[in-house]
Amino acid sequence: MLNKCLKQYFASTKQVDQLNFKEVFRHAAKHDLINLDEAERWLAYRDNRNDTAHDYGEGFANETLALLPQFIVDAYRVNQAIQSQI
């Protein structure tokens, strides 16, 4: 959904459609849909998500659980950004 909000900043919708997950959040920060700190956290969330395919240990699970409170706040904030653009 965030990529739909970015379409107004690109010459074509095809350019936006070709952005990967991390690029979407970088451009969202660039265009002030979210702030830079939020974008950095989203990149970290994505890295953590990707790591779940390779690490099943208790330490990793605890690291992931520690991210959840801020993730909820950031997810709410992204939703607000999307809703304000619709």
Cα-atom Rg, whole angstroms? 14 Å
Spatial shape = elongated
SS content category = mainly alpha
Question: Which residues sit in consecutive blocks of at least 5 with pLDDT less than 50?
Answer: none
Assign a percent range to the helix content: over 70%
Separation, N- and C-terminal Cα atoms: 10 Å
Give the number of DSSP strands: 0
What CATH first level would be assigned?
Mainly Alpha
Number of domains: 1
Short descriptors:
74% helix, mainly alpha, 5 helices, 86 residues, Four Helix Bundle (Hemerythrin (Met), subunit A)
Chain-wise SSE layout:
Elements: H1 2-6, H2 13-17, H3 21-30, H4 36-51, H5 58-85
Protein described:
By secondary structure, the chain is mostly helical. It has a single domain, classed as Nucleotidyltransferases  domain 2 (Four Helix Bundle (Hemerythrin (Met), subunit A)). It contains five helices and no strands. It has helices spanning about 1-5, 15, 20-30, 35-50, 60-85. Helix 3 packs antiparallel against helix 4 (about 35-50). It is elongated, with a radius of gyration of 14 Å. The mean pLDDT is about 90.
Give a short overview.
The protein is mostly helical. It has helices at residues 2-6, 13-17, 21-30, 36-51, 58-85.
